[in-house]
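Class, carefully examine what follows:
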Amino acid sequence: MKINIKKKWLDFYQSLGFKKIETASLVHPSFPTSFNMSAGLVQLDPRIRQKDKVEASKECLVQKCVRHFDIHKVGDSSHLSFFEMAAAFEVVMIDEKKTIKNIWDFLTEELEIGIDKLWVTAFDQDRVAGKTISLPDGLRDLLDDLVGEKVVYSGQKTNLWKQGGGAEFVDNIRLCGPQVEFFYDKGENLSCGKNCNVFCSCGRFLEISNTLFIYYYIDYNKDPVLKKVVNRSTETVIGVERCAKVVESSQDLFLTSCFSPLTSVINKKLDENVKIIIDHIKSLVFILSEEEIKPTKSDRGRIVRTLIRKSLASLYILKLDPKKVLPLLIEEAIKMYQGSYPEVKNSKETVLRIIFEHEQIYKKTLVKAKRKIDKYLTDNNVKELSEEKKEYFWLRYGVPKKLVPRLMHESGLTSQLV
C-alpha cells in the first residue's frame, strides 16, 4: 500500500490547529561544521531558550535532513545519509496526553499500522546532572492502556534526549528532556531469543517515531547542572522513509517508493553499492542546491568529499560510467523532490560540475593507490591484501575494500582512471 505520508502528516496536524511552516536550510549556522539533521529544533531553539515567556504556538513541517555520521552505515536495509523527517511541535501550552494520543492516532488510523505491531519505549525516572526527573504525569497510565506489556520503561541511557549531533550550543547550554519512542515489530521470526526486546540490535524492531518533552536544559559552564526551561515544548517526529517501509510492507528502505525511481535508473541488482550511489546522490543534490560547498579535508567540505568519493567508487565497482549514469540519476532525484523543495530544480549542472571536478582528483589518488598496492604485493611476494592492509588503503587513499580487487587485477580500470 502506497500512501503520501508527508501530505497525510501535514493534513492531520493542520486539522488539529497546527500551523504549517517551511523546512529549514540544511546549510544552517546552527550546524557550522555539518548539516541540519533534525526537524523543528532550528525553529524551536531560540524560543525555548528565551528567559521570558513566549507566545504559545503549534506548528508542523517536513524537514530535509543529512545525517553525516550515518554515511558509512549506508548500504544496509535501514540507514540513510539523506532522509525526510516530519515533525509537529508545541510551545508553552502543552497537553502531554493529547500529544501522545495524536501520534498514536496518526500511526494507527492515518497510516493504518496494526496496534499489535507497535511497541513503545519511554523514560521512566532517573537522576540527571544531580536532579531526579520523571516522565510527565499521566503518561505512564496512557502508554500502558495503549500497548499494555509492549511498553518498556528505561532511564537516561536510552530515553533521555540531549541536544547534540554537531549543533553549535549557545552559552554552553544543552536542551534535554524525557523521550517516548514508537517501534514497529517486523515479526517474531526475526527474534534473537526469549529476551528479545526493542533495545536489541537484532533487526526485529524499527524505530519509526519519537516524542521529546523538552522541559529542561543542562548548564555545562561549570559542573553540569540541570535546570527547567521557561518555555516548555514538545516535538513529535516520524521518519518518512521508515514509515514508507512499514506501510508498503517492504523488507528494505531502498525497495520503497522513496527510492524506486532512482533504482530503476541504475537498473542493477539492489546491493550495497546501488544503495550508496542513490542515497549519496540525494544528499549531494540537496546540499549543493543550497550552497556550492567544495570537497575539502575538513568540516562540511569533508562530508561532501566523502559523499562524492563513495558514490564514484561504487559506480566503479559496478562498472558503470559516472558520466552516463549521474546526469540521469540527478534528473530523477530533482523530479522526485522539486515539488516539495523548489530549490533543487536548477541544481543539476552545479551538482555534476562539482562531482566531476573532484573526480579528476580522486582518479589521481586511485592511480597512486594502485601503484602502492602493486609495490606492496611485489615487495612482500603476496597475491592478495590482508584485511588490515585493505583498511589502510581505505583510510589513506579512500579506496573501498570492494574496489581493491579491481585495482589489483583489472588493467581496464587503471586505463579508465588515467
